[in-house]
């Protein structure tokens, strides 16, 4: 069975509001995936994503009825924090988490679209580099860009990556990519909705770390 389809994102309602509890439950399955990638460099990324999720969950649990959507959290923090906002609390954690989610979206879409380095068809560096350049690079100074280059060298082979997405089972590449495409439908809509919310609320920042 596909790891992705075991933990699918749900279809959004017509107003495209993202349910906080469902969102947190779904993204909580992402960090453990890094353990199958086989290099300690991924533990830095795992811990960053875990930290984001933990921070958003801590705010949500203070008042689940009030924070039923992600937008309710971001708006409540805007009203509570004045000039510090949006570089604060769950608003900041979600700002970074959505960038990691966009990275995953572009990487998976690129694989599903069959983009590959014809000279090295079993490498996924072209797909990873595309995702990095579009989702993260502009938010990274040279030290973090160096971590990226190290992670790129430690990236799994395409065949091993697809196998990990299939829970270690031998699944035909076409079947695995079909699962990826199915997973991407609601996933992409959700990530787009979070980006749109940040734009509409003027909550996006472009500083680099
Ligand atoms: C397959 C190989 C992939 C290679 C990936 C290379 C990626 C790029 C490497 C960049 C290194 C990043 C190291 C961390 C940098 C952080 O400094 C930076 C800024 O952090 C933020 C905090 O998050 O800083 C803020 C202050 O300025 C705050 O401290 C904030 O924390 S807060 O607010 O919570 O306190 N962070 C980043 O730049 C984000 C980096 C995200 C990188 C995401 C990379 C994802 C790679 C995924 C590869 C695997 C894809 C597999 C696809 C799906 C698997 C899912 C399986 C489970 C299914 C679940 C269903 C959903």
TrEMBL record:
<dbReference type="InterPro" id="IPR014830">
    <property type="entry name" value="Glycolipid_transfer_prot_dom"/>
</dbReference>
<dbReference type="Pfam" id="PF08718">
    <property type="entry name" value="GLTP"/>
</dbReference>
<dbReference type="GO" id="GO:1902387">
    <property type="term" value="F:ceramide 1-phosphate binding"/>
</dbReference>
<comment type="function">
    <text>Accelerates the intermembrane transfer of various glycolipids. Catalyzes the transfer of various glycosphingolipids between membranes but does not catalyze the transfer of phospholipids. May be involved in the intracellular translocation of glucosylceramides.</text>
</comment>
<dbReference type="GO" id="GO:0005829">
    <property type="term" value="C:cytosol"/>
</dbReference>
<keyword id="KW-0813">Transport</keyword>
<dbReference type="GO" id="GO:1902388">
    <property type="term" value="F:ceramide 1-phosphate transfer activity"/>
</dbReference>
<keyword id="KW-0963">Cytoplasm</keyword>
<comment type="similarity">
    <text>Belongs to the GLTP family.</text>
</comment>
<keyword id="KW-0677">Repeat</keyword>
<protein>
    <submittedName>
        <fullName>Glycolipid transfer protein</fullName>
    </submittedName>
</protein>
<dbReference type="GO" id="GO:0016020">
    <property type="term" value="C:membrane"/>
</dbReference>
<feature type="domain" description="Glycolipid transfer protein">
    <location>
        <begin position="18"/>
        <end position="166"/>
    </location>
</feature>
<dbReference type="InterPro" id="IPR036497">
    <property type="entry name" value="GLTP_sf"/>
</dbReference>
<keyword id="KW-0445">Lipid transport</keyword>
């Amino acid at each position: 069975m596909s790891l992705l389809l075991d933990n699918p994102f749900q279809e959004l309602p017509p107003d495209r509001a993202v349910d906080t509890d469902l969102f947190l439950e779904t993204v909580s399955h992402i960090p453990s995936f890094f353990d199958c990638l086989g290099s300690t460099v991924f533990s830095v990324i795992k811990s960053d994503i875990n930290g984001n999720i933990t921070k958003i969950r801590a705010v949500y649990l203070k008042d689940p009825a009030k924070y039923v959507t992600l937008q309710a959290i971001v708006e409540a923090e805007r009203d509570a924090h004045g000039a510090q906002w949006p570089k604060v609390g769950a608003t900041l954690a979600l700002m970074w988490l959505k960038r990691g989610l966009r990275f995953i979206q572009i990487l998976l879409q690129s694989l599903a679209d069959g983009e590959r380095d014809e000279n090295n068809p079993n490498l996924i560096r072209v797909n990873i580099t595309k995702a990095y350049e579009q989702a993260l690079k502009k938010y990274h100074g040279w030290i973090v860009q160096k971590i990226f280059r190290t992670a790129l060298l430690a990236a799994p082979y395409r065949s091993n990556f697809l196998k990990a997405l299939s829970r270690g089972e031998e699944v035909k590449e076409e079947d695995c990519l079909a699962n990826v495409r199915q997973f991407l439908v609601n996933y992409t809509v959700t990530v787009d909705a979070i980006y749109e919310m940040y734009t509409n609320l003027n909550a996006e920042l472009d500083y680099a770390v």
